[in-house]
Amino acid sequence: MSEPVAPVPTPIEQRELVLTRFFNVPRAKVYRAWTEPELLKQWFAPAPWTIAKVDMEVRPGGSSLVVMRSPEGQEFPSPGVFLEVVKNEKLVLTDAFVKAWQPSEKAFMVATITFEDHNGGTKYTARVQHWSAADRETHEQMGFHAGWGQCADQLAALAATL
Amino acid sequence: MSEPVAPVPTPIEQRELVLTRFFNVPRAKVYRAWTEPELLKQWFAPAPWTIAKVDMEVRPGGSSLVVMRSPEGQEFPSPGVFLEVVKNEKLVLTDAFVKAWQPSEKAFMVATITFEDHNGGTKYTARVQHWSAADRETHEQMGFHAGWGQCADQLAALAATL
User: Fold this and answer.
1) What is the pTM of this model?
2) Which tens digits make up the pLDDT trace of A34-61?
3) A9 and B67: CB-CB below 8 Å?
4) What are the counts of helices (DSSP H) followed by strands (DSSP E) for chain A?
């Protein structure tokens, strides 16, 4: 009997992008801004981009549709599914499914968002994992850090008003 | 404002393989044979292949590891995750994750197994959906119908003894 012969996968560390921010706002408010469509709309696109539409069922297996709109008015729908939902603590979403559990055209990423208490505020972490190192690279080149960073700032500003 | 410009996805019908069988055994027994590792081992590989090891947490987000062994003794581990579990009715598994919710090296398929009452027996359906039409084609060429068909026969024979 030989050893198992599964191909050695690319270590997950080489397939992920991580953004961490500290907000001076309790995590329950940050979580609200993430999970209420009317609030999400106000911060989820890096200005001057906007969000044209949000439909979300925030539960495991629930669908999520966010339509971004460019300054020129072109719309970009992003369908996905929630994999895990822990109120005020954690959200896991992926674009690998368009609804539970129909595969999308392309499994690109899984985003794990965590909300942790930190000095009366929130440690906010977006850990985005990909199926390939190439997709991670593409995502970084697309401006992951600037884009998600700008949105995180917008999120913090909105959550502070709640 | 222009229309949304998401690429038109390949229709899911062109990305799936379906196997249906009617068993003369109540579905609770078929479901048991699917979800108890010691039973799964006895039918899940098409003889003369065998199952060397099964580890399963049968719950949404639970990991599944099945190691197949060829007649020559070579082992092939297949890690995956359960996406949905409805006792005696439905199981949904995918190889897109190695554990909740870490992307695998390759999102190849989602298997939706349904167990329905039918004339005192069971209508057994394995609907296997892929992220691409090419992967569906590969899976069919690998012998999906013969392989899953032979395993379904083994499953029915085992369930009848329970």
Assistant:
1) 0.92
2) 999 999 999 999 999 999 999 999 999 9
3) no
4) 4, 9
